Amino acid sequence: MFFKKEMTSGSIEYIIVGLGNPGKQYENTRHNAGFIALDYIAGELGVKVNKIKFKSTVGEATIGGKRCLLMKPSTFMNLSGQAVTEAMRFYKIPPQNTVILSDDLSLDVGVIRIRRKGSDGGQKGLQNIIYLSGSDEFPRVKVGIGKKPHPDYDLKDWVLSRFTDKDKKLIAERLPDIKGAVECIVAGDIDKAMNLYN
């Protein structure tokens, strides 16, 4: 009973989710751009994302005066919705207050796109979140990881490949913008985020 009370004390208003695959072998792979972005935001806020809850590692942060749950699902990318919808149900958070940070193959490395809602664009983690929640009204910050080098290149091999040093630098340069975009979204000004960072 004490544990339950402790978990629900205060109210989480937003969930910020970085998508990726757990485990050392997937660190710094293209598919883990969402994890990289979330880790940067947590680091800048001085928050540790290390508690195990909702099939994820989580931490709590205050962004613009609002209490936010930072989460990295441990379910592997294709089942991200299991973790995300569990946390949404627990805190009664609507899709509009659940911000998804994910990789995007259709964007050049380091390009970011903020969207208010929409289809999954082929991103399997987003696809599972939309499927299990029954909604596509999730604000999202998509991080470009670049197209496959040539059409015959295996898609799975590409998204699970590691960023080159040049690509890492391009991603690192945009991390402050991703944090800025999340701050705008939590402040209720997604238009500002799109105008500033898209």
Detailed description of the structure:
By secondary structure, the protein is α/β, with parallel strands linked by helices. It has one domain (12-197): Peptidyl-tRNA hydrolase (Rossmann fold, 3-Layer(aba) Sandwich). The chain is 39% helix and 20% strand. The protein is built from seven helices and seven strands, in the order αβαβββαββαβααα. It has helices spanning 2-8, 33-45, 80-91, 124-133, 155-159, 165-186, 190-197; strands at residues 14-18, 51-53, 56-63, 66-73, 98-104, 112-115, 140-144. A seven-stranded mixed beta sheet has the order 2-3-4-1-5-7-6, with helices on both faces. A hairpin with a 2-residue loop joins strand 3 (56-63) and strand 4 (66-73). Helix 2 (33-45) crosses helix 6 (165-186) and helix 6 runs antiparallel to helix 7 (190-197). It is globular and about 45 Å long. The protein starts with a helix and ends with a helix. Residues 1-9 have low confidence and may be disordered.
Overall body shape: globular
What Rg, in angstroms, do the CA atoms define? 16 Å
**Count of helix runs:** 7
> Ranges with pLDDT <50 over ≥5 residues?
1-9
CATH superfamily: Peptidyl-tRNA hydrolase
Please tell me the overall pLDDT: 89
Q: Within the largest sheet, what's the order of strands?
A: 2-3-4-1-5-7-6
Helix-strand category: alpha/beta
- Beta-strand content estimate: 15-25%
Can you count the beta strands?
Answer: 7
Helix content: 25-40%
- Supply the number of structural domains: 1
Order of helices and strands: HEHEEEHEEHEHHH
The multimeric state of the shown protein is single chain
